[in-house]
Design brief:
Order of helices and strands: EHEEHEHEEEHHHHH
Shape: elongated
Number of domains: 2
Radius of gyration: 22 Å
CATH architecture of the largest domain: 3-Layer(aba) Sandwich
CATH class of the largest domain: Alpha Beta
Largest sheet: 5 strands, parallel
Distance between the termini: 47 Å
Length: 215
């Protein structure tokens, strides 16, 4: 499997199953997508503001819900293998991404694994085991959370400086060397961590050391 990031802004995610697994999937996608959860019962859990529809679709009725919602992704999280199989089959017929929570390891084409993630926007780090060991994914995610802290501010800062260097027609190789120097600079990381206003100037000083003073 090849990892990709997918923007679900403005899209619909259709979740079959209102148990705790379905709730966890709903929470994950509700940060961007319009999430619809179809289930005869719902666990006492946080569904992230998803729209819960109380219904009992059998395998033959799954297609109707695809017609109603036109999802970009369908999640099969029921305790009925026949329903989950039907969700996967309809998704395959319609070219819709599908995540089956009852399948581990090898996946069919078009099937996706939802990884454990660490976020410090706009930075996202994902950890996956191909669906074989969610517990390991969670453990690894927790182990890198501290390493990612502050990366969002670094991304914003270096993005701004990269745009500046592009506007000044700095050659690609020199831009690359300069950005590498900034992200590897302990002084810049410390300035960002302190929350002060000097992080940008600290980064500019690093650029000048690499490129020479261009002022």
């Amino acid at each position: 499997m090849i990892p990709l990031l997918h923007d679900f802004d403005g899209e619909t995610v259709l979740v079959f199953g209102g148990g705790r697994v379905g709730a966890r999937k709903a929470r994950r996608f509700a940060r961007e997508a319009d999430v619809v959860v179809v289930s005869p019962r719902f666990a006492d859990a946080d569904f992230g503001g998803a729209r819960k529809v109380r219904a009992t679709p059998d395998a033959g009725g799954v297609e109707t819900w695809f017609d109603r919602t036109e999802p970009a992704l369908a999640v099969a999280a029921t305790d009925d293998p026949a329903v989950n199989e039907a969700v996967a089959a309809v998704a395959d017929e319609r070219g819709v991404l599908v995540n089956r929570t009852d399948v581990h390891g090898e996946r069919d084409p078009g099937s996706v694994v939802v990884p454990a993630t660490v976020r410090d926007e706009p930075v996202v780090v994902a950890v996956a085991t191909g669906g074989t060991s969610p517990a390991l994914s969670r453990y690894l995610r927790q182990s890198i959370e501290d390493d990612v802290a502050g990366a969002g501010e670094m991304a914003a800062l270096t993005g701004e400086l990269r745009d500046r260097l592009q506007s000044e027609d700095v050659p690609v190789e020199q831009r690359r060397d300069a950005m590498r120097a900034v992200v590897r600079s302990d002084d810049v990381w410390k300035a960002l961590d302190s929350g002060g206003d000097n992080s940008r100037q600290t980064a500019v000083d690093v650029l000048d050391d690499v490129l020479g003073d261009r002022s």
